Each structure stands twice: as C-alpha cells, then as structure tokens.
Amino acid sequence: MRQLGSPKFFAMKKSFFIGNLGFVVLLNILVKSVWIFGIDRNVQNICGATSYGSYFALLNLCILFQILLDMGLYYHNTKVVAGNNHLLALYFPNILALKVLLSGVFAALVFAAGWLLGYHYEQMVLLGILIFNQVLLGFISYFRSNLGALHMFKRDGVISVLDRLLVIIAGGIIIYFFSDWLTINLFALLQTAAYLLTVGIAFYFLYQSFNFSGVKFKPRLFLPLLKRGLPYAALVLLMSVYMRSDAVVLERISGKEAAGIYASAYRLQDAVNQLLLLVGTMLLPMYARLLQKKENVLSLAGFSGKMMFVLCSSLAIGSVFYSSKIMPFLYPQATAYSAAVCTAIMCALPGWGLCYVYGVLLTADKKLRFLLYISLAAALLNVGLNLLLIPLYGALAAAWISVLTMSSVGLVELGACMYYYGWKINYRLGLKLLLWILGSVGIFYLSIFAPWHWIIALCFATIATIVLSFVFRIISVTQLKAIY
C-alpha cells in the first residue's frame, strides 16, 4: 500500500494535476488571447467607451446576482460527485430541474434591480439579453462541474473556451469586414448563440462519459439540495459583492465613460483571472478527494500556491513598468490615467492567486463559517471604500480598493490554512520570495532600457523572472523531474 506521505505519492498527484493543467492553460492562452486582443478590445474601440461602459456595468449587475442561478449547487455538486461518482445519476436530473426554476427567480430579481437603479429602456433591453446569457452560462458551469468531478479535465478545458472560440469566428468576420454593423447589442447576441451551442456540446460530452440509465427525477430532493447549498450560496453572494460591485457603483456615480475606462483596464486582469479560475476549478475536486481520504493536502496546495504566486506577481510587476505602453497599444484613446488604472488593477493579481489556491482548499474542507466571516468583512470594506472614494478619484479608486481587498482576503485565507492544517511558517521560502520579487523588479526596470521593441523587452523580462524562480528554487528542477 502506498504511503500517504511518500514523495512518490505526491509526485503522482502533482503529475496528474500539471499534465491536465498544461493542456487547459495552453488552450485558454491561445483562445483567450485572440478574444482579448482581436474581439473584445475591438468591440470597445468600435462601439466606444461610453457604450461599452454601460454594457460592462450591466454585465456586472447580472454577475452580482448570479448565485441565484446556482444557490451553491456548483460547489456542493463538485465535492459530492468527485468523491462519489455514482451519485451523478441521482443529482443530475434534479439539479437540472431546480436550475430552471432558479433561472426564473434570477431574471425577475435582476430586472427589478435594473429598474430600481434607474436604467432606461435601451439599457433594460441589453440587460435582458445579458440575463439570458448568464442563464446559459449557469448551465454550462453545471455541466463543467460534473466533467471536472469525473476528472475529465481535457473535455472541461474544451468547453471552457468553446463559447469564446465561436464568438471569435463570428465576431471576427463582423469586426474586420462589416464593422459598421457592430453594436453592443449585436455583440451580446453573438454570445447568446455561442452559449446555446456550447450548452449542447457540454451536455453531449457528459452524456458520453456517464451511464444515465439509472437516472430518476425526485422533486422532493429540491429542498434538501437548496439547504445543503445555502451556505455556499451565501459565500458566493458575498464574494460577488467585493469582486464585482465596483463596476456598478462606478457607473452609477461617475458615469458610463468612467466605467468604460475601468473596463478597458480590467480586461487584462480578467483574462488572467480566467486562467486562475480554471486552476481553482481543477483544484476543488482534487482537494475534495484528498480530504475525503484524509490525505495530506500540503504538497498539492504548496506547489500550486508557489506557481500561482510567481505567475501573478510577475505579471503585476510587469504592468507597473509597461502599462503606459500596453494601454495605448490596445486602445487609441487611452490616456495616462487609464494606464494608471491598469497598473493598479493588475497589482491585485497576487491576491487573486492566493484566493484560488487557499480559498478553494478552505471551501473543499467546508470551512464555510470562516469564509463567510472574511467575505462579509471584505464586502463591507470594498463597498464602503468605493462609496467613499469613487466620487473623489473615480476608476483609480476602484482599482486600488480592489488591490487592498483581494490582497487582504488572500493573505487571511493563507493564514487560515496554516492554522487549520498545522502548516509551519517557512522562513527560508519567505526569504526566497522576497529576493525573487526584488530581482524581478530589477529585471523589469532594466528591460525598459533595452534597445528592442517594448513588446520583445516585456516578453524577455517576463521569461527571465520565471527562470529566476528556478534559480532561487522556488519552483525547482527536481520538482519538475518528479512530476514528469
């Protein structure tokens, strides 16, 4: 019998994780890079910051209420099915029916919120399209949770980019050949079509992967499912408040143009966040299985945390030195102010990375009371500071408040993991990370004087900081050999 604490055992765990992660990350980098630079950016440039700012605020309003589509069923389903695959036949039809009912509640409440916030007719029409899109995304998310729980990460990875890929094809034709036709409503409708097709393909993947012959519809399970998922629902609602309410508050206080500036800067962070979300989605069922078998999670969490920290910090440091070049490159109307907003938003990435590793671990281990407390504190901090400072400093205030919020949450969640699982402070690793940060700052600083085009200099500097993490043995060659 394999010893739980053996290096070989944890190497196999990390090998499985990294192998699937590599495929998913590569796929997402390819597709979402085209999405960011070829589609979403051009939609904002063509439609204008004001029009896109309105779209961005309405989208975030939908996301604030998105938990009503799920009520914690995603996390509960992932954890339960990951540990007991046979329960998929029991849960699948009942959760599916329940999600249909929740979709109606979601639509009614978001429309009511839009009316209370004073949105006019044209904005309400766009809000209706976005509501339907979020409903479709809810079904995609549920199907993906089952694929992930069954450890079918490659199919999950395909579904994670399929909708974007479809919009890239259709939207690319319109943007580059019929740009006069493009409106923000048409852009939203293109996503609707892509989501519909993705729902169908995701269901097909799931149908192929599991025998549903024993499926039974049991409406009496609705109430128990909602009760079990309610703590997760409350957690996600609070998280949505401190992660997404800033765009709505900014648009209502400072106007559509300010929201458009924030959206243009937020786009880069959101692209990275999609990759971080994929990592978190993959880690959740893996943590669930380890915890159910009472196996040590330190190796997986520690390795994932170091990888995430190096990646996120490298991108954040790079943005400090290069946002003044990146923003004008992406947006002809960009100003020094929008570059400053971009720098601030990207500096929140390390906090996001910590949350996707250690917050997910706490979620998998059902440390919900603690997570609810920290999320409530973060929501109050974020909303309170936004209401206080956005009238004075606009989008820049929202960006730096996001840095404060995410960094605080990430560090507290790391501290909680150390407390709950008895991890000791690794002073040697802390010193290595500090030296790596200082070295990375130096590399990026020197790169701005390089006699090359700034894009080449940025790429070389980013690669150099990754290499530096190996030099300091934050991520060692020995670990990689053990993985492969």
What does this structure look like?
- The protein is an all-alpha fold and 484 residues long.
- Helix 2 (49-64) runs parallel beside helix 9 (256-292), helix 8 runs antiparallel to helix 14 and helix 10 (298-330) packs antiparallel against helix 11 (336-346).
- It has helices at residues 7-47, 49-64, 73-83, 88-116, 121-149, 153-177, 184-209, 222-254, 256-292, 298-330, 336-346, 349-364, 368-393, 395-421, 427-447, 454-471, 477-483.
Helical content, roughly?
over 70%
Structural class: mainly alpha
How many helices? The count is: 17
Number of domains: 2
Order of helices and strands: HHHHHHHHHHHHHHHHH
* Biggest β-sheet strands, sense, barrel: none
> How big a fraction of the residues is strand?
under 5%
Q: Could you tell me how far the N terminus lies from the C terminus, measured between alpha carbons in angstroms?
A: 22 Å
Q: Radius of gyration, Cα only, in angstroms?
A: 22 Å
| Averaged pLDDT | 84
Strand runs, count? 0
Anisotropy-based shape: globular
Low-confidence stretches: 1-7
